[in-house]
Structure formats: structure tokens, C-alpha cells
Amino acid sequence: MTGLDLDAIRQRVAAASPGPWTPGDPPITASPADVAFACAARADVPALLNLIDELRAEVFTLTNSEDAMLTIVGAERDTALAEVQRLRSQLAAAAQCEALDCPIRERGR
């Protein structure tokens, strides 16, 4: 982000005459604060526009990151639910076998 001094910009806005100022109709008597505001606007406005661009880019990046994370988490959730279902089926089969008094063999033996 830029090293933009937002407090200084706010102070210039607060000190300047209220607007709107329209082309061809500047304040009749410009105060020193009005002159400072107008002079600083040449640098402030581009800096503020750059800040807006940076923030929009950051929002875009964060939004896409969040979407990607939700996709990953959703896939992991689906995998976990499938594993839970598989284990429940095995547990039910083992319980049924035990109820029928049949021997349970371990895998690989």
C-alpha cells in the first residue's frame, strides 16, 4: 500500500470551504486552506485512486483465495464423509457377524 497520509488529507478537507466548487465558479475569496486543499488535490487524487486500485486488487485476490479454500475444504469434507460411511458399514457388518457368532478375520491374514 502507499504511504498515503489520510489524516492530512482529512484535515485539508475539513479546513477548506464547503463545496461543491464548480468550474468557472470558484470561491470568491479563497482562504489559505482552500488554496492548500486545491494545490494538494493534484497529488492527493492520484494517490487515492492508486489506493483504490490496490484495495480492489486485494479484494479480488482474497475473494479468489476464499473460493479456492472453500473448494478444497468441500472436497476434504466429502472424502471424510465417505470414510465415515465406509467405517460405519464395516462396523455394522462386524456387529452383524458378532450377533451371528461368526469368526471375524483381520485383513492381511
How large is the count of helical segments?
2
Sheet with the most strands? Answer: none
Percent range for helical residues? over 70%
The assigned structural class equals mainly alpha
| Outline | rod-shaped
Counting DSSP E segments of at least 2 residues, the number of strands comes to 0
Indicate the mean pLDDT. 83
Structure description:
The protein has 109 residues and is mainly alpha-helical. The chain has one domain. The protein is built from 2 helices and no strands.
Q: Which structural traits does this protein have?
A:
single chain; 109 residues; mainly alpha; rod-shaped
How are the SSEs placed, and which strands pair?
Layout: H1 6-15, H2 32-99
Task: Describe, in short, the structure shown.
With 109 residues, this protein is mainly α. Helix content is 72%, strand content 0%. The longest helix has 68 residues, at 32-99.
